[in-house]
């Protein structure tokens, strides 16, 4: 948006961040709710100490992801009409990144726990490693490369750089 003010840009960016969080928070909450029920199932007592630690990591990281994805909305309520939207946008972006990282940990450890329970630790470790790599690449690595491509094309002079007023 070329002719938007800083305040309008902050408003638009915050709405976009909340839309992204809305998608993620539903999945996180379903995973977290499922993980909260696991210890009450009859098979949970058969888990060894290593699997209990995997469960712990999955549960705590799902809770962290939930907190991070919900934080922008809660903080918006507290900071409503305080003129702090740009701060809230920067902070919400950080919480979104931390929430995605925590979600990747929770999904990976939960999958590892279930695969270990059903098959063996070797298959569980390989699968969890592949899932972690996929999440890290698709959620962080590929976008980081896109950012680096964008910054090199905008500083190189020969590319079709996006004007800074239209970057988010």
Automatic annotation (TrEMBL):
Location of the region described as Disordered in the Swiss-Prot/TrEMBL record: 146-168
Pfam families in UniProt: DUF6328
Key words, A-Z: Membrane, Transmembrane, Transmembrane helix
InterPro entries: DUF6328
Transmembrane annotation, as ranges: 21-41, 53-72, 93-115, 121-140
Domain of life: Bacteria
Residue stretches in coiled coil: none
Protein name: DUF6328 family protein
């Amino acid at each position: 948006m070329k002719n938007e003010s800083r305040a309008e840009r902050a408003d638009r960016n915050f709405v976009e961040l909340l839309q992204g969080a809305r998608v993620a928070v539903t999945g996180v909450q379903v995973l977290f709710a499922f993980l909260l029920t696991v210890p009450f199932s009859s098979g949970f007592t058969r888990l060894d100490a290593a699997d209990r630690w995997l469960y712990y990591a999955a549960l705590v990281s799902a809770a962290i992801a939930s907190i991070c994805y919900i934080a922008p909305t809660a903080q918006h309520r507290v900071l409503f009409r305080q003129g702090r939207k740009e701060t809230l946008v920067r902070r919400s972006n950080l919480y979104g990144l931390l929430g995605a990282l925590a979600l990747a940990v929770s999904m990976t450890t939960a999958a590892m726990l279930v695969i270990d329970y059903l098959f063996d630790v070797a298959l569980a470790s390989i699968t969890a490693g592949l899932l972690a790599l996929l999440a890290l690449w698709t959620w962080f690595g590929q976008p980081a490369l896109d950012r680096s491509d964008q910054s090199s094309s905008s500083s190189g002079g020969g590319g079709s750089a996006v004007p800074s007023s239209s970057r988010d």
